[in-house]
């Protein structure tokens, strides 16, 4: 016979909250954390920031991204405090090794078509309105894709967007140089029109207060070197990271809808790499898009992108309508 005390202990154990490194928040709980932060964007400004197919509105900005901008502003301030403590430990802010104005680096990751570019643009716009850090730069990892000629030589054109299709060493060095406080750092520029790197163009970043690095694989851990030793990875330079999440079937639908809109707009440009898909029927073009999703983007998502979700400080989960439903914030 089981004693009442034993049964009560078993019941308490069964109902004990599961230990987790995250704080789970509903949309309403998260929205309440904006703490009277004013909305600095107009509907016209938001329209310019919104990605193709993204349905984000001012309510979404107010409920989701204002609290996030407030949180990041607090993180930036706290990081400044830690930097001051380190300089105090070093004895003199003028000594070699002391830090002054090291940029705060934010990584934004997530699948193709999930809306991470809109999130990154919104964060840039919102964070630059805080008086403490007006210089906010945004860089996408597309500029560090290997040029088409190089991808073809390595047999990687069908793996474009996979970790091995990037010059990861150059990307990591770029962010490391910014983090080190270099006065001027340059990055390659990618054209979605021609689907390749622009050889004669460079993006120049000059000592930002905050740098936002956006890309599908930015949370990838570093690969071991040929000597077997672990290297420093891109994510090691992030002060905060965001993963934009959604169900795979929803992302696929958004991807196909975006493809249809691009086919009616940007793909019509005679210089577009994808202009050939405007010369066939919509169903033929969509067959190509479905195949690309199934054989490239879905595979990359499941094998490389989604497994990095647990490395993020914040996971933003969207519902079928692109609206954020819940958020998971990593505990300190």
List keywords for this structure.
globular, two-stranded antiparallel ribbon, seven-stranded mixed β-sheet
Question: What does the model show?
Answer:
The protein has 332 residues and is an alpha/beta fold. It is 38% helix and 17% strand. It is built from nine helices and nine strands. It has helices at residues 4-14, 27-31, 43-49, 58-90, 116-127, 148-153, 168-179, 248-264, 282-305; strands at residues 22-26, 104-110, 136-140, 185-191, 196-205, 210-214, 240-245, 314-318, 324-330. The protein has a seven-stranded mixed β-sheet. Helix 4 packs across helix 5. The longest helix is centred in the N-terminal third of the chain and has 33 residues, at 58-90. The protein is globular, with a radius of gyration of 22 Å. It starts with a helix and ends with a strand.
Task: Provide a count of the helices.
Answer: 9
Strand percentage lies at 15-25%
The structural class is alpha/beta
User: How would you write the strand order of the largest sheet?
Assistant: 1-9-8-7-2-6-3
Along the chain, the helix and strand elements come as HEHHHEHEHHEEEEHHEE
What oligomeric state do the depicted chains represent? single chain
Helix content: 25-40%
End-to-end separation in angstroms reads 44 Å
Rg on CA atoms, Å: 22 Å
- Poorly predicted spans: none
Shape: globular
Provide a brief overview of the structure.
This protein has 332 residues and is α/β, with parallel strands linked by helices.
